[in-house]
Structures are given as C-alpha cells and as structure tokens.
Amino acid sequence: MTTTSGGSRTPAETPAAEFTVRRARAEDIPAIVAMLADDALGATRETPSDLAPYRAAFERVDADPHQHLVVAEIDGRAVGTLHLTIIPGLSRRGSTRSLIEAVRVHTDQRGSGLGTRLIEWAVAESRRQECVLVQLTSDATRVEAHRFYERLGFQASHLGFKMPLS
Question: Rounded mean pLDDT of 75-99?
C-alpha cells in the first residue's frame, strides 16, 4: 500500500512524505525495536542491544495469519510500525475484532501525519478482515497518545487491567 498524508490534520502536523505500509521482515527488527525503545516507557522495557528475543518473537508473529506486524517505509527506511491482531470470537454474535498494539513513529517523522495514516491503514485493514470493532490500549501515562487516538475517533470506553507473569 502506498499512500500520502491527507485528510484532517492538526495545525502542528505537516504532510507525511509518500510512504508504503508493508508486512515487516526480519531485517526490520533492529529498526522496530529502536522505535519501541525510543521513549521513556520503552527505554525501561526494551533492549535494542540484544535482538535474540525479538527475533524469536518475530518468527512466532510472522507464522500466525492473524498477526499483521507492519512498517511504514519511506525511501527504503522503516519509519513507523504497528502490530494489528485479528481476533475471532463468540461475543457480539460471533464477531471478529482487531487489536492495535505497539504503534510507533520514528522521531524524525513525528508530527508529520504518519501516525494518523498508520492508524487509518489499521482501521481499513480491520474492515477488510470483516471486524466489527477495532480496539487498542495505551499506557495510562501516555496522555498525548490518548488525545491522538480520541482525535481519530477512538473512545475511552473500558478500564484495562494487566498482570505481569514474569
């Protein structure tokens, strides 16, 4: 998918360069991990210096047809990423939903509209996969991200809980 920025933007956003959204490949792992680690929360939980666990996880994700780990690419460089999971279920009359996770945009592309376009891609792909709703979670401390998702039409409708297992 090749796309350019468009649609509604906040005044701070400048149009994103033309980019391609494509399935992530193993050679994208260093760039994806670097984007995951490039903020206060990610810096405490990611280890870009040891890619072995990420490579093993990538193999599992890549083998699962319900997982869509993608990158946004400009001039051959991964500048954004997200992970879309398609979840078939029995609730809502046997509906399928999607889950957006790990949305990141490279520092030099933030504010360009690229994040908006990545989310738009995920919503369109969710529709294509016949999902009845798309959901996401965002750490409670990511206030700017919450405003971003609300601006795109997401509603803070649930309270989430997590339990670390290790």
Answer: 96
Alpha carbon distance 46, 13 (integer Å): 28
Query: Residue 125's closest CA among 94, 102, 154, 96?
Result: 96
Query: Residue 135: beta bridge partners?
Result: 99
Is there a contact between 53 and 71 (Cβ–Cβ < 8 Å)? Answer: no
pLDDT for residue 39 is more than 90: no
Q: What's at 77, amino acid-wise?
A: R
SS3 12: coil
List all residues 6 or more positions away from 35 whose beta carbon is below 8 Å from its beta carbon: 78, 80, 81, 104, 105, 106
Burial tier of 67 (Cβ tally within 10 Å: 0-12, 13-18, 19+): middle
CA dihedral 80, 24, 2, 132 (to 10 degrees): -90
Q: How far apart are CA 81 and CA 54, in angstroms?
A: 14
pLDDT band at 33 (very low <50, low <70, confident <90, very high): very high
Determine the Cα–Cα distance for residues 143 and 165; give it in Å rounded to an integer.
26
Residue 11 has pLDDT above 70, yes or no: no
Q: Which of 6-15, 67-76, 132-141 has the lowest mean pLDDT?
A: 6-15
